[in-house]
Design goal:
Blueprint: H1 2-40, H2 51-60, H3 65-82, H4 94-97, E1 102-107, E2 113-118, H5 127-143, E3 152-157, H6 168-181, E4 186-192, H7 196-205, H8 211-214, E5 217-219, H9 225-232
Helix pairs in contact: 1-2, 1-3, 2-3, 5-6
Length: about 260
């Protein structure tokens, strides 16, 4: 008789979880519809956005429709001004591309595109070109996402970082673009080969990173590097410079 009670109790827990999940899904669906209606009434271009995009902005503001609406409208205005042609061409970021510092290939264990930044190859340039370059890279990464996937994983390799590579203005501009105009796109950022100099920079930039995004940055000790990378990415998808089998593919050549 006690065993029957345990089974009944377990089934009630399962049914309760199912109802909870359904309630959450119904709430989200309703909120997406509310956000869409609120934004489409103020900017007709919003009608071109799919529900997954609406959902990302909604979750970036913790399902607060009013705050998400303001964020989404700001994004639409920014996109028209920053990317008037709908895309950033190679010729618009040629100086940044020449540094050959950003790569993307392969997928992690969650099916997210993998991007690699070699920070020691970055040198401060014209800020508006760097902003365009940030958009260029993010658009390229997003275009590689498999159907149903919304996030990417980034390996930020800081080996060899020197003061000449430190570009506070550029870093803050890139963070601003990612947080405000590409919400819920970063799945995880693995910071590897972290030198002491970067920790000084981190103290300066971390206050500008919202808590939700900050939690996605993972500092990896050198002794744990191989284990951490293989926990996230299969060897067949891991770049060869980290012991994997994939060659680095520069961002402009990725598809």
């Amino acid at each position: 008789m006690d065993s029957h009670k345990e089974v009944d109790h377990s089934q009630k827990e399962v049914d309760s979880h199912k109802k909870g999940d359904q309630t959450d899904e119904n709430l989200e669906t309703r909120k997406i519809a509310e956000l869409r209606n609120a934004v489409e009434g103020r900017d007709p271009i919003a009608k071109e956005l799919d529900d997954m995009t609406i959902r990302r902005f909604l979750h970036a503001r913790n399902l607060n429709v009013e705050k998400a609406s303001a964020m989404l409208l700001k994004y639409l205005k920014w996109r028209k001004e920053a990317v008037p042609n709908g895309f950033i061409g190679d010729s618009e970021v040629k100086n940044e591309l020449a540094q050959n510092k950003f790569f993307t290939q392969g997928l992690d264990n969650s099916g997210r595109p993998v991007a690699i930044l070699l920070a020691s190859k970055h040198f401060k340039g014209e800020i508006n070109e760097y902003k365009r370059y940030s958009v260029y890279c993010l658009d390229k990464i997003c275009s590689r996402m498999p159907s149903g996937q919304e996030k990417f994983l980034c390996i930020a390799d800081l080996q060899g970082l020197r003061y000449s590579n430190c570009d506070m203005r550029g870093v803050l501009a890139g963070l601003d673009i990612m947080q405000n105009y590409y919400p819920e796109r970063l799945g995880k950022a693995l910071l590897i080969h972290v030198p002491h100099i970067f920790m000084k920079i981190w103290k300066l930039i971390s206050p500008f990173i919202d808590n939700k995004t900050k939690q996605k940055f993972v500092f990896v000790d050198d002794k744990d590097l191989e284990k951490t990378l293989l926990n996230e990415i299969e060897e067949s998808q891991l770049p060869d410079i980290y012991g994997g089998k994939m060659q680095l593919i520069s961002i402009e050549k990725s598809s």
